[in-house]
Amino acid sequence: MESATDDKTSAVTEAAPTLAAELKAPTVTRAYQCQCGRPVFLRNSQCLACHTPLGYVVDHLGVVPLAPDTREGAEPDTFTLFGEPDGKAYRRCANLLTPGACNWMVPAPREGDDPSFNTDGLVPGLCLACSVTRTIPDLSIESNGELWRKLELAKRRLVSQLLALDLPVVTRLADPVHGLAFDFLGNLPGGPHVMTGHQMGVITLNAEEAEDAVRERIRAEMREPYRTLVGHFRHEIGHYYWDLLVHPTHWLEPFRELFGDERADYAAALQAHYESGPPPDWANRFVTSYASSHPWEDWAETWAHYLHMADTADTAMSFGVDAQNVELTSDLFELSDLWQPEHPKASEFLDFLNGWVRLTNVLNELSRSMGQPDYYPFVLPRVAVGKLQFIHEVISEQRAVSRDPAPER
Questions:
Q1: 99 burial type by CB count under 10 A (0-12 exposed, 13-18 middle, 19+ buried)
Q2: 367-401 residue pLDDT tens
Q3: CA of 49: how far to CAs of 35, 65, 113, in Å?
Q4: Distances (CA, A) of 206 to 183, 220, 339
Q5: Rounded-to-integer distance, Cα 404 and Cα 137, Å
Q6: What is the pTM for the complete model shown?
């Protein structure tokens, strides 16, 4: 027999919001399912339980079960979504059977399909994610195949998130001036060291960063708390979107108010950072020490941090992770900590931010229980929170434009 106390406890439990509800993660689910009901993941090309073919379909922003296209006149090796035999047709990306192991699908338009369903801007035979890769590591070197696979896996994670955020992902074939391209380069004997960076839409990554031991050595040498492939991608793509979404827009002046004047000598700023280190109070104003080197790097580091938060929150929400009953090691943020506390959506962003604080406390405890370093080795200063809200608003505006573009005049 239940007591009155039990009834009250039950009522409170039912009324308490879950972390998933509070996070209000800004994109889409990361929990994918096969037609058989088993969970599948971003890298899967076949269900391990029932062997149904799987693929990432841009239209659905996720990995979906597929079935061979059996319609009369169907091209060989084409698929439709499982259970939709009369729907759109797709074919495998040509990189599925390469070391890149791409599981993304390429449109296979048929007569009568909407004209927007096409392969314009794509490299023949390749999906969108692979079409933005311009240079791959030299595969005549055996070890480079594995490095390329890791690079592409991280890049596909990035591109899938950009698409979910309604951020433009345009190839150089579609737009030779503002299109995106990735060069994965290796150091050559006697040649210059390949530097990871961005210039005019071209993102260069040193393929050696895909080697875990090399990346960890560099992380330790530079005294960084965190260094991953997906982190590199998210940082460098931040430079690309600054050129696209901030520099030529009304966001430039508020950017300078928050991050500083980007017209300061970039090369001199980086040289000073590497020679003298960050300012003593950097932790009170920046998400990382490197962010203190120049406004462009502050933007890119904060942008990458926002993408980390959004994707991790989406994943937690997708799998029903709840962190409401957690002992916090830091205070929650308040509206007064935001850049624009009066913004109509400020409370929603604050919910997302504080949900993140709760979630990372749980994730850190889980890491400690396995004897691992903290999953989230950062402490967000209040000044950086304002910058995160700025980036949130820039992305939110872009999402609104993408979903409801202004009519042509």
A1: middle
A2: 999 999 999 999 999 999 999 999 999 999 999 89
A3: 11, 12, 33
A4: 9, 17, 36
A5: 40
A6: 0.91
